[in-house]
Amino acid sequence: MTDLLTMMGIVKEFPGVRALDGVDLDVRAGEVHCLLGQNGAGKSTLIRVLTGAHQPDAGMIRINDEPVQLNSPTAAIQRGIAAIYQELDLVPDLTVAENIFLGHEPSRYGFSRTHEANTKARAILQGLGHAEIPTHRTVGSLPAAGQQVVSMARALSRDARLIVMDEPSAVLDPEEVSNLFRVIRGLTDRGVAVVYISHRLEEIREIGDRVTVLKDGATVATGLDARQTPTKELIQLMTGRSIEYVFPPRTEVSAAAPVVLEVVDLSRPGEFAGIGFEVRAGEILGLAGLVGSGRSEVLETVYGARRAATGFVRVDGAVLRPGRVQAAVKAGVGLAPEERKSQALLLDEAVFKNITVSTLGRFASSGFLNNRAERDAASKLAVALDVRPAGVDQPVRNLSGGNQQKVVLARWLLRDCRVLLLDEPTRGVDVGARSEIYALIRELASNGVAIVLVSSEVPEVLGLSDRVVVLREGRAVHTGPAQEIDEHQVLDLVMEGSAR
Ligand SMILES: Nc1ncnc2c1ncn2[C@@H]1O[C@H](COP(=O)(O)OP(=O)(O)OP(=O)(O)O)[C@@H](O)[C@H]1O
Predict the structure, then answer these.
(1) C-alpha span between 299 and 322 (Å, rounded)
(2) Residue to mutate, 25, 398, 434, ligand 1, most ligand atoms under 8 Å from C-beta
(3) pLDDT for residue 214 is more than 50
(4) Which ligand 1 atom is the nearest neighbour of the CA of 17?
(5) How many CA atoms lie less than 13 Å away from 393 in the CB half-sphere?
(6) pLDDT band per the 50, 70, 90 thresholds, residue 156
(7) 123-127: long-range contacts (C-beta < 8 A, 24 or more apart)?
(8) CA–CA separation, 7 vs 62, rounded Å?
(9) ABC transporter domain: from which residue to which, for each copy (predicted)?
(10) What is the DSSP string of 312-335?
(11) What is the ipTM of this complex?
(12) Complete DSSP assignment for 163-193
């Protein structure tokens, strides 16, 4: 089989950083080529070079054996290269059909043009196995999975021959991931090549054909067989070490440990109803459920960012004033939200400032900030979470997406909370840092913090928590020790009644 794309010796420098240091990648028509690497390894930079957003400082790109210059995103699109990012670049207020043909609308005008666009859009969606998506609906009203399909349809409408997907599964339910994989297989059957980026290594075997691994801006392995290469070997290649991908041992939570968080009969119409649980000091409680099951809404209500219609929350025996974040914070409740990046970073400030920003009180005495103590505390966490590049003085803006995630998480781990609510703590985080994050969360619990964890990765919820609450459509359908239920049982519970 000939290569559709060959990238050779690609170099890209930013001031002070050589983000790509001679990367090679070759992709064949009709294959799913997985691109792996730790946070900061250079994956996004390589993709930006491929999609014409960055110009390489050195190296060669060939498409169908012909040398090409991808001087702009338009040039890349004309060469049949499209990318689907996690932050989808769709226009929410335009319809599905308008988004699919944005920038290259069918040429006739007036009613017939809309009609033609709808008809063509329907045909493309049908080809992707998603004829049910209404072409006249606004994109903003579709769930994340539907929006992703529209993004793919847009790529196809431009005759893309190579589609890059940057962590497409991160925002999807297990069922939606199976759908996505079906769509990807449909694309490759038609000869389209897919470059697939994910930090979920178990997916690689399921959807990948071949694998390229980047480390520190260079290719360390390319063309590996996705099904035959053991996960252990991939981790070794990515990190340069072997990581036992295990969860920290649970420490027995004594029945005498005080109940720190009590949630009683909490409801919000349309979101969740009758939710109740207790979390003791030292305990990690996991909330499992599909996107839309009410997981994040429950956390936000406990935090006071949403006001409960019924029920109440008690911390250390005292009822929190409903709908008041300040009251929750005062009682020692912290929430590390799902959308950490957009919510919380001071992009031009140094890494250490970003880590310590909500704990400055701890480093102040007689009105002066103890800069050294502040930097030391931040450095310790940055090292533990393997924030790259190392050093806490650079602006956060220069960090890769995953490293930015780690910085905000570090901020929450540094706070002295009584109750820590963690929403998707490892989203976008590489395999090396995941184990460290798990260990830090367990350590916080051992120090007496009550922790509530939300994650769409069921193995993570089961592996890290002491007890789990399974939510379906806003109701708790199961509560019990994490060790007494397995992944399949959880999936059966969350999907009961849906077409599985
Ligand atoms: N605009 C920039 N200015 C300075 N440095 C940058 C810039 N963009 C990226 N870098 C650096 O280049 C390196 C590669 O970053 P890149 O975003 O490509 O990593 P990645 O593999 O996509 O990581 P992640 O898994 O976290 O998304 C990192 O060291 C990052 O800090």
Answers:
(1) 13
(2) 398
(3) yes
(4) 5
(5) 2
(6) confident
(7) 124/100, 124/153, 124/156, 124/157, 125/96, 125/149, 125/153, 127/156, 127/186
(8) 6
(9) 5-241, 255-498
(10) EEEETTEEPPTT-HHHHHHTTEEE
(11) 0.96
(12) EEEESGGGG--HHHHHHHHHHHHHHHHTT-E
Q: Are strands 310-315 and 259-268 parallel, antiparallel or unpaired?
A: antiparallel
CB atoms within 10 A of CB 157: 22
Closest ligand 1 atom to 400 CA: 17
> Which of 17, 201, 340 best tests ligand 1's pocket when mutated (most atoms within 8 Å of CB)?
17
Q: Which of ligand 1's atoms lies nearest the C-alpha of 399?
A: 31
Structure tokens at 422: 């963690």
For the record, the structure tokens of 91 come out as: 């226009």
Find out whether 459 and 243 touch, Cβ atoms under 8 Å. Answer: no
For atom 27 of ligand 1, which residue has the closest CA?
Answer: 401
17 lines ligand 1 (CB under 6 A): yes
Evaluate: CB of 44 within 6 angstroms of ligand 1: yes
Q: Does the beta carbon of 434 lie inside 6 Å of ligand 1?
A: no
Residue 425 structure tokens: 């703590």
Q: Whole-model pTM above 0.80?
A: no
* Contact of 290 with 173, CB cutoff 8 Å: yes
Write out the DSSP string of 418-464. Answer: SEEEEESTTTT--HHHHHHHHHHHHHHHHTT-EEEEE-S-HHHHHHH
